[in-house]
Prior knowledge:
Blueprint: H1 2-10, E1 14-19, E2 22-30, H2 32-56, H3 59-76
Antiparallel strand pairs: 1-2
InterPro entries: HTH-type_Bedaq_tolerance, WH-like_DNA-bd_sf, WH_DNA-bd_sf
Protein name: Regulatory protein MarR
Amino acid sequence: MTAMLQVLAGHELIRRDQDPTDGRRQLITLTNAGRRRAEGDQAARAEWLARALHHNYTEAERQILLDALTLLDRLTHL
């Protein structure tokens, strides 16, 4: 994990600060560049999923998937 955080910090995607209440810990936050990168990655995944669903499934199959997601969402909120 430390190596990964070093790479992200080196690319100025995160900022590492000492925890003011516990000097052994660090607080990790996204920089503006990191936030833009994360949002761009999320948008690209959403675009890919929309295209994959459109090209590989019928409307009826997409509706089944949406119904299943609704049930799974309910399950996660029990």
